[in-house]
Amino acid sequence: MKTIFTIIGLAILAVIIFFVMGGDTADAPTDTATSTDDIATSTESDLEAAVGDGDYVIDTEASTVSWEAEKSFVDGYSDKGFIPVSTGTVSVSAGIVSNATVTLNTAEITATETSNTSVGVDRLTSHLRSEDFFATDEFPEAEFVITDVQAVDGSDTQYDVTGDLTIKGETNEITFPTIIGSINGELAITGTTIINRTEWGVRYGSPSFFNDLGDSAIADDVSVTINLVATQSTQAETTEAAATTTTN
Fold first, then answer.
1. How far apart (Å, rounded) are the C-alpha atoms in residues 109 and 49?
2. Which of 46, 108, 137, 196, by CA, is between 20 and 30 Å from 13?
3. Which range marks the domain in which residue 181 is found?
4. Which pTM does this prediction carry?
5. What is the β-pairing status of strands 158-167 and 221-232?
6. What is the CATH number of the domain that holds 202?
7. How many domains does the chain have?
8. How far apart are the first and last CA of the chain?
9. Would you say residue 15 lies in a domain?
10. In a domain, 4, yes or no
């Protein structure tokens, strides 16, 4: 499997993230009719394999892209957070996702937990948005575009998703396993993968590029989990969502 997000990490610029500081907790996206908890804790048996053909619009309130980063030489160290989903569309043909585009609001990337309690999540969040990491003033968005979906033999809900993840103007192809089906009448897509942040030009604290970092070294690999909820749309909704994604 190629390294990655962020899909549909999706996604999955998740993205996506790597740090040095941390503390308390911040508010995460709120739940809606189909909550991200429903999807994150769902198993293959919880999902209905049948997904209706047509165009879907991603429910940005119910969808999340979360990340977890570690320090290279500090056992048990972990920073966690999320990146809001701005817009997204998904097309389903013959019961299989044929394409999708998901835009992430990296300008609002947020840390919610950290092992470095002496600094706090607010400062960690600010650092992530700075030039050291995502440079969100210049690159306020990331994007994942699905280019291929392959069913896993013997399963009705497991797929390998391939797509182009763009972060900080750099685009790389990623492939990762997902579970796709319907839950509570809505399209559900969930998957976790690992991306090497340095492939998107995020090298701060990387032991691959800097020597003698010691306990400050931040691992290149970042875990990204995508939980997407999408509802079947009218033609007007699909056109509006697509237009928003294009202008972004």
1. 32
2. 46
3. 36-247
4. 0.78
5. unpaired
6. 2.40.128.110
7. 1
8. 30
9. no
10. no
